Amino acid sequence: MTDKKLAIIATKGTLDWAYPPFILASTAAALGYQTTVFFTFYGLQLLKKKLDLKVSPLGNPGMPMPMGMNKWFPVIGTTIPGMEGMMTSMMKQKIKAKGVASIQELRDLCVEADVRLIGCQMTIDLFDMKREDFIDEIELGGAATFFEFAGDANVTLFI
Amino acid sequence: MADFNQELDARGLNCPLPILRAKKALNGLASGEVLRILTTDPGSVKDFEAFAQQTGNELLESSEAAGEFHFLLKKS
Question: So what's the ipTM on this one?
Fold first, then answer.
């Protein structure tokens, strides 16, 4: 077993960007890393009791679109109301079809593997969020809390 | 085929689920016992090598047959 440490800062709150922190944290935990993820700004959406994550094609030319839509679909089309919901449900179908874990499942696995999940107190105050909106397993903290474990981490990632 | 104590069917699952499920299954085994894992994710071949190397559990066998991957992991 390793006594290595992994520190991640998760800053993004979309369905696609929810994957890297949870995949890396759960895998690191399985490899024996002591793992902590600090969630700040939009990243706090990943800690909500009720996950409602979406993916947006807007301003994302790298996003593969079905049926070659990105070839003939004008960029402005991605701003049409309902586009976000459509892309999100298509993405969720793909995730299921390909045997990729849901965010809920990966988060549960992180909790189970004793990954420390820390929510940024400042962000919660800034956006008038409530502690009870978030799962019970998180701690709250600030920048100094992050450095408490990141200071001697072997791997530190900003996502 | 070598003997094993438990089998894990991770076919149809994608990264990192086969590794996470394997880790969980290993938790329930005693030292020296062997876990057999079945997967369909081609990425799992490299991943199980890396998992074994980093966790100290020994990868006794890694093989492919008809698009499926088979692994034997011995718990350290």
Answer: 0.83
